[in-house]
């Protein structure tokens, strides 16, 4: 682990801070159901939590936050729910375009945007352009994202470059990583899944090879900076060996 020291929400000194945190935003539907509200009310609450947690990550010095917001499998949900999520994305992207310079937050979308509406694609292109003018904290939002689809897409892009004679030598892991959405970004140190499920659900399959996993029953809309501190504290108790022996 690095020696990136920080203060957490409780004012305690954390031993070491993950450079990159990934979160599966899960539990919005159950949060709403518990309150006898429609599922989309849970997605709205979840989007507010994302805003708070992204701000907190930036404040404490995390460099990258990658969140799973909509998977390649989530299209199976009722049309009304998918439509509601797309509306929320539209609202969120408009706000991001308004605020990202002021807040100094770069934003990238990971995923196949070709299935999204032209309006959403235009907003995403705009956030990409603004991000080029900003340095520092980066939020990656995974939309119509699947880990397997990402790997296949990377393989196809490599095959095209190979056929065009644009690559040299044997393909390495490092080179292959350069074809993923996460090109140039360090792998997540810590992967958090709120919502009580113990699975990866097709998230960052390549990048999580050595991430530390942290699961909690807290539903995403209820997730707070204190919960993030707990996850970071748990991360600090882990011994990351990367296949080696304890130092
Ligand atoms: C995660 O919350 C958000 C998306 C997958 C879009 P869910 O909607 O999966 O919430 P639960 O798992 O049903 O509670
Ligand atoms: C994972 O949550 C996908 C996102 C959070 C975007 P799901 O709720 O879709 O995952 P499963 O169905 O429980 O595996
Ligand atoms: Mg879920």
Could you characterize the architecture of this molecule?
The protein has 247 residues and is of the alpha/beta class. It has a 6-stranded parallel sheet with strand order 5-6-4-3-7-8, with helices on both faces. Strands 1-2 form a two-stranded antiparallel ribbon. Strand 1 and strand 2 form a beta hairpin. Helix 2 runs parallel beside helix 3 and helix 3 runs parallel beside helix 4. The radius of gyration is 18 Å and the shape is globular. The N terminus is likely disordered. The chain binds 3-methylbut-3-enyl trihydrogen diphosphate (2 copies) and magnesium ion.
Helices, strands, pairings?
Layout lengths: L5 E2 L5 E2 L5 E5 L3 H7 L4 H22 L3 E8 L7 H25 L2 E5 L7 H14 L6 E8 L1 H17 L9 H5 L12 E4 L18 E4 L9 H12 L11
Parallel strand pairs: 3-4, 3-7, 4-6, 5-6, 7-8
Antiparallel strand pairs: 1-2
One 3-methylbut-3-enyl trihydrogen diphosphate binds next to α1.
Strand order of the largest sheet: 5-6-4-3-7-8
Mean pLDDT: 94
Largest sheet: 6 strands, parallel
Question: What distance lies between the first and last C-alpha atoms, to the nearest angstrom?
Answer: 12 Å
Q: Specify the helix fraction band.
A: 40-55%
The count of β-strands is 8
Low-confidence stretches: 1-5
How many helices? The count is 7
Hetero groups bound?
Answer: 3-methylbut-3-enyl trihydrogen diphosphate, magnesium ion
From the alpha carbons, calculate the radius of gyration and give it in angstroms.
18 Å
How much of the residues is beta strand, in percent? 15-25%
Shape descriptor: globular
* Secondary-structure element pattern, one letter each: EEEHHEHEHEHHEEH
Oligomer: single chain
Structure classification? alpha/beta
